[in-house]
């Protein structure tokens, strides 16, 4: 079958453990684009967190970013669909995070917002691998509610990074009845989006815009926020390093992110033969 779109996750998927994209994988993305295949990144990241990969992503036309909260056209620098978290819900999530001394991380289309204190302690909340990126790109904020008031309708996703799984579970108990889509993207991270919004919903929106069937898509991922998109796409691919839940729903398991798993999946499902 000739698949028409490739959607790939970033962390744990196309990025190696040291947060790089191999030249061979970047070249394969460019080849797909030249052949007329749509190439889309499917990630929880905002634009600010993708900027460092501009060179490697020259062939990536579309983005299902912020875990489906925004569908984006990189070529035209245009938002195709947007689903912000309501201000009321953002306030409640901030309160829930602060109650557990969790790291509160707000994301807009182009901003990554956190406090100076939390950025300095990222290793304590299991996010040390992202320390250098946050140091460079984060907007520092010590009054999150003031930011929300001054930027109405801009918060697309809220991350709450916890110091332990017990703390995470207590936050889940606090917010589970708020009518949000809650997923676990890292070991102790709770990722909150509006109800019904996920990478899967973003892929469906993108397919409607492009006038293609979602069954003509291949989606690749590794974590909890990839479960729905892997189940929804015509072919769902789990990385070799994916969590067990992702591997169970996937149609195919490729190599891990340090051994060109995305490249091998492309060769498997986008062969020119």
Describe the protein in words.
The protein has 273 residues and is an alpha/beta fold. It has 2 domains: 5-83 and 197-269, Rossmann fold (3-Layer(aba) Sandwich), CATH 3.40.50.1000; 87-194, 2-Layer Sandwich (Hypothetical Protein, Haloacid Dehalogenase-like Hydrolase, Chain: A, domain 2), CATH 3.30.1240. The chain has 11 helices and 14 strands. The chain has helices spanning 10-14, 23-34, 87-99, 116-120, 131-137, 144-150, 165-175, 199-210, 227-232, 244-249, 261-269; strands at 5-8, 38-42, 62-65, 70-73, 78-82, 103-107, 112-114, 139-140, 157-161, 180-183, 189-194, 217-221, 235-238, 252-253. Helix 3 runs antiparallel to helix 6 (144-150). The longest helix has 13 residues, at 87-99. It is globular and about 55 Å long. The N and C termini lie close together (10 Å).
Please give a handful of descriptors for the protein shown.
273 residues; alpha/beta; Rossmann fold; Hypothetical Protein, Haloacid Dehalogenase-like Hydrolase, Chain: A, domain 2; 2 domains; eight-stranded mixed β-sheet; six-stranded mixed β-sheet; 11 helices; 34% helix
């Amino acid at each position: 079958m000739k698949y028409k779109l490739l959607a790939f996750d970033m962390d744990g998927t196309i990025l190696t453990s040291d947060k790089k994209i191999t030249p061979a994988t970047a070249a394969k993305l460019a080849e797909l684009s030249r052949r007329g295949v749509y190439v889309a990144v499917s990630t929880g990241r905002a634009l600010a967190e993708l900027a460092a990969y501009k060179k490697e992503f020259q062939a990536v036309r579309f983005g299902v970013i912020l875990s489906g909260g925004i569908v984006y056209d990189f070529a035209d620098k245009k938002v195709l669909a947007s689903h912000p978290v309501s201000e009321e819900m953002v306030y409640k999530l901030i309160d829930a995070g602060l109650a557990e001394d969790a790291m509160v991380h707000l994301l807009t289309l182009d901003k990554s917002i956190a406090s100076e204190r939390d950025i300095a302690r990222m290793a304590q909340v299991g996010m040390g691998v992202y320390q250098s990126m946050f140091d460079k790109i984060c907007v520092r904020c010590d009054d999150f509610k003031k930011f929300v008031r001054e930027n109405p309708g801009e918060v697309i996703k809220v991350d709450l990074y916890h110091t332990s799984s017990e703390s995470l579970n207590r936050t889940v108990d606090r917010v589970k009845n708020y009518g949000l889509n809650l997923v676990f993207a890292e070991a102790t991270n709770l990722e909150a989006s509006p109800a019904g919004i996920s990478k899967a919903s973003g892929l469906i929106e993108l397919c409607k815009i492009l006038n293609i069937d979602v069954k003509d898509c291949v989606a690749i991922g590794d974590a909890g926020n990839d479960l729905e998109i892997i189940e929804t796409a015509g072919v769902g691919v789990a990385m070799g390093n994916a969590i067990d839940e992702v591997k169970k729903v996937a149609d195919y398991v490729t190599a891990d992110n340090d051994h060109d798993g995305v490249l091998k999946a492309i060769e498997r499902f986008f062969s020119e033969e």
